[in-house]
Structure formats: structure tokens, C-alpha cells
UniProtKB/TrEMBL annotation:
It is a multi-pass membrane protein. Pfam families: ABC_tran (PF00005). It comes from Toxoplasma gondii p89. This is ATP-binding cassette subfamily B protein 5. Keywords: ATP-binding, Membrane, Nucleotide-binding, Transmembrane, Transmembrane helix. Residues 54-86, 122-148, 250-270, 285-317 are annotated as: Disordered.
Length: 453
């Protein structure tokens, strides 16, 4: 401005100079911000690649289930070698039968054989242990000299067969939840083995293993998606449905009608379209009025009552399928999702939500669900996969008495369908196991103190 006053510069040039100077400063500020963001991103990328480059401690097995191997062999076999492969399959079946009969595992689904697990000392309180603490631990327990620092389970052995319900009880920190994590191979034991249908789970593929074991935890996590997507999580995929239409079975497992115009878009897991319809509460006399789904059927008029209930269910299902949000869903998968919610006694409160099964839930969603409602959705998620083994880890801690009684009826249905069930709970496990005269495992200080039936 001094040069403008003296007439050495025009006012326009002065204003242009100030404008250019302001743009220069803003560019320098952005450059400094980019420099700071670059260093922040560099540190984040180092942590990311450090995580990606790590080798998982749990390695995937190489074996496939026998049913899948036979199916693949039938589709890829050479006609000239059909007779030879048939002889080999027959020999393998005979060997498997002899092996199971010799071990006595023909009815055993899941078996723990002398399983011991210890976490690294660094995962504990700095790995520090005084001599007095070690001596006190040995004095408190006669088998303390066998115990290692950080040991969670020691020499645990039990077996569970088809149609059995096993209650696992114990104090906090006794290792109850660790048993469930060992079944899924979240950890591998240092000693012993875990057998599923007579085979070591370390030889199975993780995907095949975990598709056969349904896990319901105490605090289930719901994704920020619709309730239907949370129940069918892992089975529903937005891929083009025309590519998967050929996979649709000729008879729908969810109803007695033919699924002619149904769309299938799900993963190729073994239980994508399982026998969920066989768990329909109407097929059993184990219903309870607490669940609100049915009543004890009398011998007279049972067929007509079932027919009316089926018609009502079909009308309600058609109403759900006619929603705008259901257009992108495979019809049969949505049927299966609704059926799983009914068996888990979650259908009533879901229908009362603003958008029903398509209501957004999860973190930050406008609809807040209670702990018991989340647990029932988690139970429906496990039922939707129709696994061979169910593990309920404190899965009924937030349920009221009426809903808990309804869950017991569901457990009876699963038991009748030869499902193996593990209940890790204080309130439900002990009483239910005593009433049903099933097995009960008592854990204390990492040891299996009692295993009875």
C-alpha cells in the first residue's frame, strides 16, 4: 500500500499481489498437511503389512469330509475306472467301520482325549511368578507339579454322542469358554486330541469344521445390517442369481411346496439349505405356551389345526416376501431365515419392528435391541446353518423365564433330531441337564473334576 500511495504501483496490482500471496500460503499449508498425513499413513501401513505378513498359528487341514470327497469323485470319475473306484470306496467304508467299532465312536460325535492347553507366559501378567506363589499353587493342588505356568486346561477327557446334551459348569476362569474355542480350533491344544466323528479336527479344513459346529456366545455381535442379513450371515451373497439357479434342490427343505421360481444365492457350505424344516415346532408335542408359537396338540383335530397354522404361516411369509426389500433376496433363503427366527422365538419381536426382518440393527442403528433379543437372533443364526453340533456359551443369560423355557423346548427339538448340544451356563445348564438326565462336566481350577450322566 505504501507504493500505491506514492504512485509507484496501481491499486489493481496491489490487490492481485495479495490474492496471489494468499493462494501461495494456502498451497503451502496443504503441502504441510500432506507431509503429516504421509507419515501417519506410513506408520499405519507398516502395522497393516506386519499383520498381513504374519503366518496364522492355526493351519488349515487338508482333508475333506467323506461326503464331499464321494460327491467330487462321482462327478470327475473316468467311466473306465468306475469299477476300480467302487472297490476302493467299499474298502474305505469297511476300514472306517472297523476303526469306529474298535474305538467305540460309532455314536460319538465329539470327543476330547487328554486335552491340555497352556497360554504363553507373556500373555499373562508379564510372565512374572514368585517362588512363594509357585509353592502355594503346588500345596493347594496335589497335581500342581504337573501344572505349567499359564495352563488353562489339563488332561480333560469326555465324549458326547448324537442326541446328547452336555452341560459344562464351573467357576469363572475354569476354562468353560476355552472348551468351545478349542472345538472351533481358535486354539490348538499342546497335548491330546479333539475328534469330530472319529477324526482329528486338525486334519479337517477350517471351513468344513466350523460349518458343522454352531456357536452362540454370551454377547453376540450384530453387524450394521438388516436383521435378516444378520441371521443369514455367511449364506447370503449379492452375486447374480442366474449363476446359482442350477443349485436349487428339486424339493424345498423349508416347505412342502416346490421351489420353482426361487432364487438361490448363497455359499456352497454343506448346510446352506439344510433340514431346518424338520425342526418345525408343529411336528412335536414339545411346544410350550411361553414361546407363543403353539400349544400341546390333542389327538383330535390335529391335522386341521396344523393345516390352519400352515396357511397362516404361509400368508405371513408371503407378506414378508412381498416387501420391497425382499426383491433382492433368494426366496428360499428368506423362507429359511424366517423359519430359523420362529424356532429361536425371535419372530414375534422382529415382526413388531418398523420394517420387520429388514430393520437395520447393529452399532449406530436407529433401532436398539435388548440383550435377550440379540441372543435370540444369534440362536437363529446358528439354527439357519443346521450344524451337527451346537455350543451355547451363556447364550441365555439375558433371557427372561418364559423365553428361557421356550429355548429349552427348542433344545428338546434339536435333541430329537440327533443334534449334539453343549450348554455352558450356570442357570440353564445344571437344571436342564439334571431334568433330562444328560451328561454334566464340572470344571474347577482347569481340571475336569466330575464327568457323569
Amino acid at each position: 500500500m505504501y507504493r500505491v500511495v506514492r504512485g509507484e504501483m496501481t491499486l489493481g496490482r496491489c490487490l492481485a499481489f495479495r490474492s496471489y500471496l494468499r493462494k501461495l500460503y494456502s498451497g503451502l499449508d496443504r503441502l504441510l498437511e500432506i507431509y503429516g498425513d504421509f507419515h501417519f499413513s506410513l506408520q499405519s501401513s507398516e502395522r497393516y503389512f506386519d499383520l498381513v505378513d504374519r503366518t496364522p498359528a492355526i493351519q488349515d487341514g487338508e482333508d475333506e469330509p467323506a461326503d464331499r470327497r464321494e460327491k467330487d469323485g462321482e462327478t470327475t470319475a473316468d467311466p473306465s475306472q468306475t469299477e476300480l473306484q467302487a472297490d476302493e470306496k467299499q474298502l474305505l467304508r469297511e476300514q472306517e467301520t472297523k476303526r469306529q467299532s474298535s474305538r467305540g465312536t460309532d455314536e460319538t460325535v465329539l470327543e476330547f482325549k487328554n486335552v491340555s492347553l497352556a497360554f504363553p507366559s507373556s500373555a499373562l501378567s508379564g510372565g512374572q511368578e514368585t517362588a512363594s506363589e509357585a509353592r502355594r499353587e503346588e500345596d493347594d493342588d496335589s497335581a500342581g507339579r504337573r501344572r505349567r505356568r499359564g495352563e488353562v486346561l489339563a488332561d480333560v477327557s469326555f465324549r458326547a454322542g448324537k442326541g446328547e446334551i452336555m452341560a459344562i459348569v464351573g467357576q469363572s476362569g475354569a476354562g468353560k469358554s476355552t472348551l468351545a474355542k478349542l472345538m472351533h480350533r481358535f486354539y490348538d491344544p499342546q497335548e491330546g486330541a479333539i475328534l469330530l466323528n472319529g477324526r482329528d479336527i486338525r486334519t479337517l479344513r477350517l471351513r468344513d469344521l466350523r460349518s458343522r459346529i454352531g456357536f452362540v456366545e454370551q454377547e453376540p455381535h450384530l453387524l450394521r445390517q438388516s436383521i435378516a442379513e444378520n441371521i443369514a450371515y455367511g449364506l447370503y451373497s449379492p452375486r447374480p442369481t442366474l449363476l446359482h439357479r442350477a443349485r436349487l434342490p428339486s424339493r424345498s427343505p423349508l416347505s412342502s411346496t416346490e421351489g420353482q421360481n426361487s432364487r438361490v444365492s448363497c455359499s456352497s457350505g454343506p448346510s446352506c439349505f439344510g433340514s431346518l424344516s424338520r425342526l418345525d415346532p408343529r411336528e412335536n408335542e414339545l411346544q410350550t405356551s411361553a414361546g407363543g408359537h403353539g400349544r400341546l396338540l390333542a389327538s383330535d383335530g390335529t391335522a386341521s389345526s396344523n393345516k390352519r397354522e400352515e396357511e397362516d404361516d404361509e400368508e405371513e411369509l408371503e407378506e414378508i416376501l412381498s416387501a420391497k426389500e425382499a426383491e433382492s433376496w433368494p426366496r428360499e433363503l428368506l423362507r429359511k431365515t424366517v423359519r430359523a427366527a420362529k424356532i429361536a422365538h425371535a419372530h414375534e419381536f422382529i415382526r413388531r419392528l418398523p420394517q420387520g426382518y429388514f430393520t437395520l440393527c447393529g452399532d449406530g442403528a436407529p433401532v436398539r435391541l435388548s440383550g435377550g433379543q440379540k441372543q435370540r437372533i444369534a440362536i437363529a443364526r446358528a439354527l439357519c446353518r443346521d450344524p451337527q453340533v451346537f455350543v451355547f456359551d451363556e447364550a441365555t443369560s439375558c433371557l427372561d423365564t418364559a423365553t428361557e423355557a421356550a429355548v429349552e423346548a427348542t433344545l428338546d427339538l434339536l435333541r430329537k433330531k440327533q443334534k449334539t448340544i453343549f450348554i455352558i451356563a450356570h442357570k440353564l445348564a445344571v437344571g436342564y441337564a439334571e431334568r433330562k438326565e444328560n451328561h454334566c462336566c464340572i470344571l474347577s481350577r482347569k481340571w475336569l473334576l466330575n464327568y457323569k450322566s
